[in-house]
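Researcher: I'd like a structural prediction for the single chain below. Treat it as a standalone chain; there are no partners to consider.
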Amino acid sequence: MIYFFSAIVLLGVLITIHEFGHFIVARYFGVYVQRFSIGMGPVFYKKHDKQGTEFALSALPLGGYVAMLSDRAIAEDESILDGLSKEQLANTFESKPKWQRALIMLAGPVANFLLAILVFAIIYSNSVERQFDATVVLNETSKIENQYAFEDGDVLEFIEGKKINNLQDLRLELLSHSGKSGFINFGFKDTVGNRFEEAIEVNNFLSNENEQINPENALGFTIDLKLRPYIGQIADGLPVASSGLQVNDLILSVESQPIKYFDDIREAIASSRSVIQIEVLRDSQRLYFDVELSKREVEGVEQNYIGIVPGTRLNILESIVKGAKETFNMSYKTITFIGKMLTGNLGTQNLSGPIGIVQMAGDTAKAGIIPFLYLMALLSISLGVLNLLPIPVLDGGQLVLLGVEAINRGPIPEKVENVIYSGGWALVMLLMFFAIFNDISRFF
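Model: Treating it as a single chain, here is the predicted structure.
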């Protein structure tokens, strides 16, 4: 049941936020909203507010809608007029200026982007973010002939100017170049801190769907992600808690032994005495602290340990800023990947429908609140981007039609509009069936 309930919560939040964006802006501009429905199909619960809007829960939790009073709806069913006041009848959707109608259409996707920023901010401010160096490993399995300047142990910092902090950054940036032939610019830092760039030639890069599963393996050399020695959390109740060390300190040395990566700390304290000296970098200052080690038993062997967790933490303002940057970055990547799917440069194996979303919702819910929230943010971004695509019946398509009306200085002929909307519905349904087919294919 966890899969069912987590999917209901996930979809319910995303749909409610999207439709609320449309609703609140429509209300602001005075458009009469007949119904705000979460879900589609038969209504099983409804309640009216003072302005006459019906708030409803409907049987099928795969969508929602805001039914604004429109001239078209009145023309199709005059019974809608029953019980409406003159003020309500005067505030149809079409009665408003085009710029107001455009903002109403934009409000849904914008609400999804704002939700993603908020969720990312909650995640970043309540979790320890591990920082990695993507180190180059050149060995007998490396496929690349190293005519380039980078060497074993160098750190891959940038791909085409985009910072690489973790495996997700690495994979997404590589996938954004799938199908490319030519050169990709990589930024490296060598073992003494010098930075340099290399343009690596590729031919039909990541053209195979199997390569796209682990795109880092297509570089021709191995990438080893190594933890940077930041302090992300300090254990309470241990001597380290009163040592003076703080979260976000960067450990430079332990007992005068230089520390490059977090794993180096374990080796440095393995045979140390009970109190060690740790050198850290804090706000550009080098500070030294005496720290009493703790003991623990691992597989019957007593070991020294400090009681710290690697990573960094952000305050709420930093989390909001990073959340906004991540939302923009993921939105851009989503658009890029949609384009590459359409051109055939990126496989559609990751395209998911309702079944896939239910499975992801259940899996992340079992993993914990942070993974579940992260999925919510990603799907909120996807929902926002997809709704901005220029497909009739979606918000982006309606914005395009508004633009056409503005250029023609008049409404689109009804027959033409009907054909356009029918084509839009057909395209959306085709996409939905394809996504469901993808979901089912994963089980066989």
